[in-house]
Amino acid sequence: MDRAQIRQDIVEQGFCVLPRFLTTDEVERLRLTLARFFERNGRIYNLGKSQPNAAMVCPDIGFLISSPKVVEAFRAATGDDNPVFTGHCDIHQDMISDWHKDTGHGHGYFAEDCFTDGCNVIKMGVYLQDHVDGNGLSVVPGSHLADDLGNDNAVAIPSQAGDVILFDVRITHRGRPGDGVEKSLQKASRIGARIGKSLPAALRPSGEPASILALKTGYDRLRGIASRHSVFFTFGADNRFTAQFAERNMARQQRQWADRSNAYPGTLRPDLEGQGVHVYPRQID
C-alpha cells in the first residue's frame, strides 16, 4: 500500500482503487452476512434493499470496519494518522443508482461550503462480486472539486470481488444504472412510496412497494442476473468538516429510518480507538 500515491489520487482525482484488498474468505464472509441480513431486514429502495446505520444494526460487518488494513487505508487516504470514523455505514442489495454526490441534499451534510481544500471526508466502497462490465461504480474524476453533477467525463471502474474503492464523498458517481424496464419500475415504485406516505401511520409501508421489488427480482432472474451486495462506510480527517458530516449524516439516518441507536455493538468502538481512530459520537471521559 503506497500511502503517498493513495493520498495523491484522492486529492487530484477524488478516488483510488485498491486491488485484491480483501481475501477470498473475507469477501465470502461479508457476502453471506449481507445475504442473510436482507432475507428479513432492510428497506426497499431503488429497486433493491438498503440498510443505513449498518455499523449498529448489522454488527457482523464490524470486523471489516475495524480491520487494521482498513484503518491504514483511511490514514493514507485522509493524510491523518488519527482519522475519525463518522458512524456512517450502508449495506446494499441489488439497487440501481443515478448520478449523485454523497454530500446530502443541497450538500446538507455540511454546515458550510464543502468544496474547499479543508474538506477531507472519504468513503470506502466494497463490492462483493466482480464488476468488469461497467455496472459497478462509475465516477467523474476531479468532480470532488466543484459543485457540479455533470458526467461527460465519467469512467466506469472495473473491479473484482476483493477490490475496494476509496472516494471523496463530494465526487460525482453512481452505481449500476437501470435499463428501460427498471427505470419504468422505479417510477412506479416512487409513486407507490409517495402514496404510502399519505396513509395513516399504522398502515404506512416501510420504503417502496414490495410488489415492485418482486417484479424487479423476477426480471433479474429472467436475465440470469445474480444478487449483488455492497458495503459503504466513511472516515474523515479530524476536522470540522468531518464533524459536520458525522453529526448531520447520522441524524438523517436515525430520523429517516426511525432508528435512534447510537451505541456500537460488540467491540467495534474499542477496536477502533485502540488503533488511534476517533469514533463519532465521541465519548466524554
UniProtKB/TrEMBL annotation:
InterPro entries: Phytyl_CoA_dOase-like. GO terms for molecular function: 2-oxoglutarate-dependent dioxygenase activity. Residues 260-285 are annotated as: Disordered. Signal peptide: none annotated. Pfam families: PhyH (PF05721). This is Phytanoyl-CoA dioxygenase. It comes from Croceicoccus mobilis.
